[in-house]
Every structure is written in structure tokens, then in C-alpha cells.
Amino acid sequence: MAFRFHIASAILALVFTIVHASDPSPLQDFCVAVPDANAGVFVNGKICKDPKLVKPEDFFFPGLNEPGSTSNPLGSNVTAVNVNQIPGLNTLGVSLARIDFAPYGLNPPHTHPRATEILVVLEGTLLVGFVTSNPGMNMKNKLFTKVLNPGDVFVFPEGLIHFQFNKGHSNAVAFAGLSSQNPGVITIANAVFGSKPPISRDVLTKAFQVDKNVVKYLQSQFWWDNHYYP
């Protein structure tokens, strides 16, 4: 496992050295104007520490060799390492995640509104894919999907809905690099059926063309968040 971990680290390091990543757009969902500059936050990144006070620990995060707990209904765990875990990532436009899968575990359909994702499989067999944005009238969104084995790499373009599913009888592990210090994540089912306050059932009934009782049932479920932020 240690050898595979080093392979993944080397691949992701190579990607980060040959691809220039940055965050020219906002790093949060919205930015409301305030008249008092002292009451606000920076739009693109966090406040910078005085360089004289910077320590090696500001660029360090331990323990990503340890698997995350997959004891949840999805059978997966995403351990995110972004600017909130490594302050030195501020303004650098990159972050990382380890994804653990139990047998038949799923990282459900989701999107990163601020990042492209590149994923490498270390262990197991994953069915992955993403769906294109709306192509035009009377045209279908296209699914790009692939079965990945150890050593395989797949890219999920920024903002597009994507997923990863463990097809095997054993655990699976993957690492993902993301082109933002704070890529964000929107899990589709959680956002649509688990928002607070809930989206109107009339809206969802018409949008999904199902009976209102189906929407009521889905909104009554507990929508699990498989993301862990150390």
C-alpha cells in the first residue's frame, strides 16, 4: 500500500508541476458588499499571514496514508485537503482529496463549482463518469464513462456532474487533485432534496415529473454527506 501511495503522490506532483492552476474567480458562493472594509473578507483567498511569522507547518498536512471511514450508507469517504487544512495553499489554486470506497461504495453524483478534478486509482476498480452541460434544444446531455483500474487516470471538467462507484468486492482507494484551493462541492441529491428550507414540492414534482408523494418521501430521507474535513 505504501508503494502505491508513493506512486499516486508522484503522479499528482507531476500534474501540479506541469499545469499552471490559479483562482481568478471568487472562492465562495457569493460576496455581499459591506460599507465597512473591516467587516468584510477577501473575495479571492484568505487574509495573508505576515511572512515573518510563516512556519513549515503552514505548508504541511499529515496522515493522508490512513483510510477514511466508509461506515455510512454511501460506503465512501472523501478526505479533503484544501486551504482550510493547509493555509499555505492560499492563492495557489490547487488542493487534494483522498477517496476511500467500501465494496460497492459510491461517491454520488456531484459537482465542483470552482475546479477541474484529476483522479488516479490506487486500489480496486472504479466506474467513473461525468455528464455534459445542456447541449441545446431536443438534445440529450452526454455521459462520458470509463472503468478504471489501479494506475488509471481520469479527468472531470470543472463544474460538470460526475461520480465514482466501486464495482469490486474489495475496498478501493483513489486520490484526486483539484484546480482550486477551495473547489467546493455540490452533491446533487443532497442539494435538491435535502436543502433547508426545502424546495417547494410543486417545483420538484414538475421538474422531475413524478408524483408529489415521491418527492415527499425523498425529502424525508437523511441525505448523507461523505465529505470529511480534518
From TrEMBL:
SUPFAM superfamilies: RmlC-like cupins. One of its GO terms (cellular component) is apoplast. SMART domains: Cupin_1. Mn(2+) binds at residues 110, 112, 117, 162. Oxalate binds at residues 107, 112, 117. Keywords: Apoplast, Disulfide bond, Manganese, Metal-binding, Secreted, Signal. One of its GO terms (molecular function) is manganese ion binding. Its main location: secreted. Residues 62-216 form the Cupin type-1 domain. Residues 1-21 form the signal peptide. It is found in: Secreted, Extracellular space, Apoplast. CDD domains: cupin_OxOx. It holds the Pfam family Cupin_1. Disulfide bonds join 31-48. Belongs to the germin family. This is Germin-like protein.
